[in-house]
């Protein structure tokens, strides 16, 4: 469950002033006891500002590697390291460690947002070559390309924003040139 800033402040107030136990906090906020304890300890160590929602926090590879090293090499507990580094979500460090081990003991920084997901022309050529090795026909490639164009049209029309006809036409023209196909 995601907690708002007000929930976290109230949780800390109840613990500090009303002397609620972690079990009682967990029952009131409908969460796991360890989550309630983690939030309270995090605020107690670093102050209330640590739980304020900031724009998506990004951690450097060096920061992640240092945290992982403390757990794997220095044998500190995940909870202790997370609290000392003011990581706002209890399971984040566990995910970093899992990813670290799966990626051959390398910290992989993934790109965030739509820019991290774009496929370059070279990647597309390699992907196509791999698909041809699997026996995909030219007709299947054209169907995939048409589907990409239609998906782009749907995305441009999605949400509250009114898309101008010129913008849609421009996007379709770009995709048709790039993919060398028509609808």
TrEMBL record:
Signal peptide: none annotated. It comes from the Bacteria. InterPro entries: IS150/IS1296_orfA-like (IPR052057), Trp_repressor/repl_initiator (IPR010921). GO terms for molecular function: sequence-specific DNA binding. This is Transposase and inactivated derivatives.
């Amino acid at each position: 469950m995601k907690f708002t800033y007000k929930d976290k402040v109230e949780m800390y107030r109840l613990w500090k002033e009303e002397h609620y136990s972690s079990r009682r906090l967990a029952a009131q906020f409908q969460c796991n006891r360890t989550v309630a304890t983690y939030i309270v300890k995090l605020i107690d160590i670093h102050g209330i500002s640590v739980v304020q929602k900031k724009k998506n926090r990004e951690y450097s590879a060096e920061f992640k590697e240092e945290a992982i090293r403390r757990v794997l090499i220095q044998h500190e507990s995940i909870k202790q390291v997370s609290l000392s580094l003011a990581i706002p979500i209890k399971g984040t460090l566990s995910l970093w460690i899992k990813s670290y081990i799966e990626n051959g003991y390398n910290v992989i920084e993934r790109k965030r947002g739509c820019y991290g997901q774009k496929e370059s022309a070279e990647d597309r050529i390699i992907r196509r070559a791999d698909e041809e090795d699997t026996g995909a026909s030219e007709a299947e490639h054209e169907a995939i390309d048409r589907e990409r164009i239609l998906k782009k049209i749907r995305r441009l029309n999605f949400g509250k924003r009114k898309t101008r006809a010129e913008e849609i036409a421009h996007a379709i023209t770009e995709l048709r040139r790039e993919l060398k196909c028509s609808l």
